[in-house]
């Protein structure tokens, strides 16, 4: 048997290229963003180590080797989060380590089960049907690691925290791009190669995907922090990838993998832009931002492009991949199951809410009136080392959208998944783009004609004052969707979410400490009690051995 | 002068050191440090030499005073013994280096090294003894020395802990003695190899089962298996840091786990019942220990509970009895001695500089104490089983072995304990090393050079511990030790061959 430790195929090469690209952009961005911070030597060495470990993970063929790289990445994430400067940073780092490291431990169990089942740990030689209970457990154990890394529910809670508390460069580098790439890569490898999927598991994946999409985007709607809001979207988008892979048909899988790539591009772009805002204004609190479009035009444009991408507005890349995922979902209807309509509604609903949430975000950060905090700060765009990577990513958003078929799909996605899937829907990005551009031009002409031909005279303001002089009149946009918190059942859910009932980490901590309290009560420090236990234990030993 | 004559040196050298140190140490201030460190260094070198000897010439037997076993007293050096000797003596040397600076704040270094070497003599004695009664004597030497060392600070709570430890330890020892007495009356011999042969001929009976129960209780108490563990969380944190490292790192293993394995595998013979008892106790300790640990706020107490949990892994692996399980258990034993000693040394370093063991009073220490911070991180990741550190490999092997043997339930609990271990060390790292630096800790400094050296040495072993799984090192060091346990009661024949 061929037992090569590494494997180089189109999928891993494709992953490797983009891992390298994101690392490079992050390093360039960090030159500007992390300037003047302490411990930069360690910071950059951890980034390089992350690069090496990620490459190691995607090129590994042996599962043990893979897990060594994979687990090491969890520790590097932990160390990189520590570079944040918020009060809660070390708590967040701890939480991320426990969730990721904890699922890694379960991966060991999955790995052991695979070995037990097949006697091999080579990913390309193993192909297990998910028919027995043990196989399903093995799959779930390994998939939990992929879910935690990618941030799918229920292991998602570290992502929003990390997005808020880690430096923006790290939020873009790990939870937004590399960990997504790796998590979905591993899920794809597992679901396509190591295991042979059954309809039941496919439905399971699609449930996880749909719940993730909708629940996370609902949480995103009510956030007050720029980076945290982006973090919730980073969770929500994972849902599309899991959903795509869960469809089990070629177009859906290709869509899921393509969405993974697109997500990494636009979400890094969003985090980079958000980091630029943070660098300039010193805050990510939406209440304190506003009116930055004039001050930071480049950041505004890149942010806008990425926001359109993530919301699935054509012709940007997010649309192209979501479109493929939708087609994949519709195709599952041919299996005779009527559930496809649920997945489709969840996916489209999530997409609409994403758009809504980004309207709020763009308004709160870039449009409207500048807040007091913004006015006090120095004006102007951030330095080139910060905007160049952001612009590159924004450009990729456009290119991968407009030339979706010609560039990314043909060059990376299809070769790595082996074969071109059949498209059912008709979507020619080139033509559509032309139409959209035409539409915008016509609209602009009409607008010009309208304003040029008609002049309108109105009262300047109800109170006859300049709005800039009255900061309390400012509409920040933060509270756009606060009313949804008050709607019936959602009210209950949001309240529970605020109590962290859905946070697997908090729930686990409560249970553990409860059990701990019980055991501590039994350890009362009195010698006689301890001796009594010994006697009791010995008694049982005698009974067991001599009965 | 034959090769076998190095065997008694493992007892003779520390024993002699223990007598000389207080005599000279009163007059010459630097003498205890020099004697303690040079002797432990010699022992560490000898122990590595013993591994090579076993690999070249197999099991070696030394007959004390020239009287041939089974009448005379035998000292046996085989794969398991040499493996344990390396673990104990290497750790003892590194910890002795740490003590040079650390023990300055205690007044009497001479007494410290005297007790330290005495304890080392006892542990080495247990390891090399081929005679049941000698094993007991050495066990008592090590135990009594450790009772005194726990009380070394002579503060109120230290004395209380030492008192509890002494009482419970003595109860354990008496159970062991009782077991030995019954075995002696049944087999009429004290030589372990001879005893194994007699037991094979006469067959087991209720008396052997009763002795088994007594031994599991006695040695289980020394190894701190639940429910015989309650002395450990008091005793280990109360001792000075180097001693905590010795107690948690090697003492519970050489007196507890090693003795348990040697007697059950090689003398009495493993049965399915005993195997399942050991596995159950191991799993229980593993889970209960970690649940107790995670809520602790005293740094050293938290570590002490983790010792219970990690010993659980070792016993679970060895109790499984398959080649892979024993291999993983022994490897975890070695790894645990390294990272747990390192963690105790780190806690000592924090106490030395910041003057506290309460995690809530620490914070941001990594900034002020980079070496301590980094080594703690490495040790924490090792014990939590994060790759590529050594703890990952042994846990992986244990889990694979459990699954391979069809023990999925135990494998699941091993994973759960591993997650909780990670969680509790994430807590330690957060509160002690990564949080914001506290105002009153702004002035603290990194520890002196010898402490740094010894912590770095252990951290390096953690980092490269996985390499022990490759090549000749694995064969000579780990496989030889595993083989000894696997050969079971054939041990007797091998030892008798070794005499000639």
Description:
The complex is a heterodimer of chains A (547) and B (500). Chain A has 547 residues and is an all-alpha fold. Helix content of chain A is 71%, strand content 1%. Chain A has 20 helices and 2 strands. Chain A has a two-stranded parallel ribbon. The longest helix of chain A has 32 residues, at 250-281. Chain B has a domain at 272-469. Helix content of chain B is 76%, strand content 2%. Chain B contains 20 helices and 2 strands. Chain B has helices at 9-25, 31-57, 79-102, 109-128, 132-150, 156-187, 192-202, 206-223, 232-238, 241-268, 272-294, 299-320, 323-354, 365-368, 370-384, 390-404, 408-434, 449-464, 471-486, 491-499, and strands at residues 60-63, 74-77. The model of chain B has no long low-confidence stretch (mean pLDDT 90).
Could you list some keywords that capture this structure?
heterodimer, A: 547 residues, mainly alpha, 2 domains, two-stranded parallel ribbon, B: 500 residues
Topology:
The complex is a heterodimer of chains A (547) and B (500).
Chain A: H1 10-33, H2 40-59, H3 63-81, H4 89-118, E1 128-129, H5 133-150, H6 158-165, H7 168-194, E2 195-196, H8 199-221, H9 226-247, H10 250-281, H11 297-310, H12 317-331, H13 340-365, H14 372-376, H15 384-402, H16 405-417, H17 429-453, H18 488-498, H19 504-522, H20 527-546
Parallel strand pairs in A: 1-2
Helix pairs in contact in A: 1-2, 1-7, 1-10, 1-15, 1-16, 2-3, 3-4, 4-5, 4-6, 5-7, 6-7, 6-9, 7-9, 7-10, 8-9, 8-13, 9-10, 9-12, 9-13, 10-11, 10-12, 10-15, 10-16, 11-13, 11-15, 12-13, 12-15
Chain B: H1 9-25, H2 31-57, E1 60-63, E2 74-77, H3 79-102, H4 109-128, H5 132-150, H6 156-187, H7 192-202, H8 206-223, H9 232-238, H10 241-268, H11 272-294, H12 299-320, H13 323-354, H14 365-368, H15 370-384, H16 390-404, H17 408-434, H18 449-464, H19 471-486, H20 491-499
Antiparallel strand pairs in B: 1-2
Helix pairs in contact in B: 1-2, 1-4, 2-3, 2-4, 3-4, 3-10, 3-13, 3-18, 3-19, 4-5, 4-10, 5-6, 5-10, 6-8, 6-9, 7-10, 7-20, 8-10, 9-10, 9-12, 10-12, 10-13, 11-12, 11-17, 12-13, 12-16, 12-17, 13-15, 13-16, 13-18, 13-19, 15-17, 15-18, 16-17
């Amino acid at each position: 048997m061929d037992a090569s430790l590494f494997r180089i195929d189109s999928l891993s090469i494709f992953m490797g290229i983009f891992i390298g690209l994101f690392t490079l952009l992050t390093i360039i961005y960090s030159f500007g963003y992390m300037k003047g911070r302490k411990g930069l030597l360690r910071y950059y060495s951890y980034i390089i180590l992350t690069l090496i470990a990620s490459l190691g993970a995607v090129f590994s063929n042996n599962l043990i080797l893979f897990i060594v790289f994979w687990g090491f990445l969890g520790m590097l994430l932990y160390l990189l989060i520590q570079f944040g400067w918020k009060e809660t940073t070390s708590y967040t780092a701890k939480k991320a380590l426990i969730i990721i490291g904890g699922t890694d431990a379960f991966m060991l169990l999955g790995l052991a089960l695979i070995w037990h089942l097949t006697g091999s740990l080579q990913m390309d030689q193993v192909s297990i049907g998910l028919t027995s209970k043990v196989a399903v457990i093995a799959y779930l154990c390994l998939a939990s690691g992929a879910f935690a890394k990618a941030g799918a529910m229920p292991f998602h809670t570290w992502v929003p925290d990390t997005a808020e508390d880690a430096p923006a460069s790290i939020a873009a580098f790990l939870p937004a791009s590399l960990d997504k790439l790796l998590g979905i890569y591993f899920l794809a490898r597992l679901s396509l190669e190591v295991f042979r999927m059954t309809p039941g598991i496919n439905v399971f994946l699609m449930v996880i995907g749909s719940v993730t999409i909708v629940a996370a985007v609902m949480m995103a709607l009510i956030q007050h922090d720029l980076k945290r809001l982006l973090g919730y979207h980073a969770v929500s988008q994972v849902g599309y990838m899991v959903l795509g892979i869960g469809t089990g048909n070629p177009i859906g899988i290709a869509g899921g993998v393509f969405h993974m790539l697109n997500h990494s591009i636009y979400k890094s772009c969003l985090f980079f832009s958000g980091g630029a805002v943070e660098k300039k204004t010193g805050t990510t609190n939406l209440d304190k931002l506003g009116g930055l479009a004039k001050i930071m035009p480049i950041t505004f444009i890149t942010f806008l492009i990425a926001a359109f991408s993530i919301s699935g507005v054509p012709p940007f890349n997010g649309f192209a991949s979501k479109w493929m995922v939708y087609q994949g979902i519709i195709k599952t209807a041919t299996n005779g199951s009527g559930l496809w309509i649920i997945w489709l509604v969840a996916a489209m609903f999530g997409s609409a809410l994403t758009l809504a949430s980004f309207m709020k975000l763009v308004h709160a950060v870039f449009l409207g009136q500048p807040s007091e905090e913004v006015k006090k700060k120095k004006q102007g765009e951030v330095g080139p080392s910060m905007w160049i990577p952001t612009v590159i990513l924004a450009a990729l958003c456009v290119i991968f959208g407009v030339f979706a078929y010609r560039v990314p799909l043909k060059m990376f996605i299809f070769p790595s998944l082996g074969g071109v899937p059949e498209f059912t829907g008709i979507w020619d990005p080139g033509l559509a783009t032309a139409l959209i551009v035409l539409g915008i031009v016509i609209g602009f002409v009409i607008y010009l004609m309208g304003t040029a031909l008609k002049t309108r005279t109105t009262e300047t303001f109800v109170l006859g004052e300049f709005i800039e002089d009255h900061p309390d009149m400012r509409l920040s946009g933060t509270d756009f969707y606060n009313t949804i918190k008050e709607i019936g059942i959602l009210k209950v859910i949001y309240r529970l979410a605020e109590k962290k009932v859905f946070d697997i980490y908090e729930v686990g901590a409560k249970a553990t400490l409860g059990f701990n309290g019980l055991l501590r009560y039994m350890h009362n420090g009195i010698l006689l009690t301890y001796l009594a236990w010994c006697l009791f234990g010995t008694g049982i030993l005698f009974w067991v051995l001599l009965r | 002068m034959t090769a076998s004559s190095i065997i008694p040196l493992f007892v003779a050298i520390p024993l002699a050191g223990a007598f000389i140190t207080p005599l000279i140490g009163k007059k010459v201030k630097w003498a205890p440090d020099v004697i303690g460190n040079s002797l432990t260094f010699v022992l560490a070198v000898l122990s590595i030499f013993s591994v090579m000897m076993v690999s070249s010439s197999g099991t070696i037997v030394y007959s004390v005073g020239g009287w041939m076993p089974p009448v005379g007293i035998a000292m046996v050096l085989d794969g398991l013994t040499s493996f344990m000797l390396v673990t104990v003596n290497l750790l003892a040397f590194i910890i002795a280096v740490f003590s040079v600076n650390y023990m300055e704040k205690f007044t009497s270094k001479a007494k410290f090294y005297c007790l330290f070497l005495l304890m080392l003599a006892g542990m080495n004695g247990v390891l090399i003894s081929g005679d049941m009664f000698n094993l007991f004597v050495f066990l008592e030497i090590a135990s009594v020395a450790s009772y005194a060392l726990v009380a070394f600070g002579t503060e109120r709570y230290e004395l209380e802990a030492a008192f509890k430890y002494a009482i419970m330890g003595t109860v354990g020892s008496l159970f062991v003695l009782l077991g030995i007495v019954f075995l002696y009356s049944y087999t009429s011999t004290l030589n372990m190899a001879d005893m194994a042969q007699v037991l094979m001929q006469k067959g087991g009976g209720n008396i052997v089962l009763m002795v088994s129960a007594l031994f599991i209780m006695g040695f289980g108490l020394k190894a701190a298996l639940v429910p015989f563990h309650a002395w450990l969380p008091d005793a280990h944190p109360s001792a000075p840091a180097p001693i905590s490292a010795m107690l948690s790192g090697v003492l519970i293993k050489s007196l507890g786990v090693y003795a348990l394995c040697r007697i059950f595998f090689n003398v009495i013979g493993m049965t399915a019942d005993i195997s399942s008892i050991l596995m159950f106790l191991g799993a229980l300790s593993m889970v209960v220990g970690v649940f107790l640990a995670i809520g602790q706020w005293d740094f050293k107490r938290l570590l002490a509970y983790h010792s219970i949990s990690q010993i659980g892994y070792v016993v679970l692996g060895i109790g499984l009895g398959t080649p892979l399980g024993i291999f993983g258990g022994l490897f975890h034993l070695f790894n645990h001695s390294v990272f747990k000693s390192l963690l105790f040394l780190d806690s000592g370093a924090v106490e030395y500089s910041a003057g506290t063991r309460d995690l809530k009073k620490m914070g941001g220490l990594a900034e002020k104490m980079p070496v301590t911070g980094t080594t703690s991180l490495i040790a924490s990741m090792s014990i939590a089983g994060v790759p590529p550190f050594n703890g990952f490999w042994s846990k992986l092997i244990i889990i694979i072995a459990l699954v391979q043997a069809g023990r999925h339930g135990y494998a699941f609990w091993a994973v759960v304990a591993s997650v909780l271990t990670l969680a509790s060390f994430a807590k330690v790292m957060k509160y002690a090393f990564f949080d914001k630096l506290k105002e009153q800790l702004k002035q603290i400094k990194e520890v002196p050079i010898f402490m740094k050296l010894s912590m770095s040495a252990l951290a390096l072993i953690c980092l490269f511990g996985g390499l022990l799984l490759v090549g000749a090192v694995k064969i000579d060091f780990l496989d030889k030790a595993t083989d000894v346990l696997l050969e079971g009661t054939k041990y007797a024949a091998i030892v008798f061959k070794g005499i000639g």
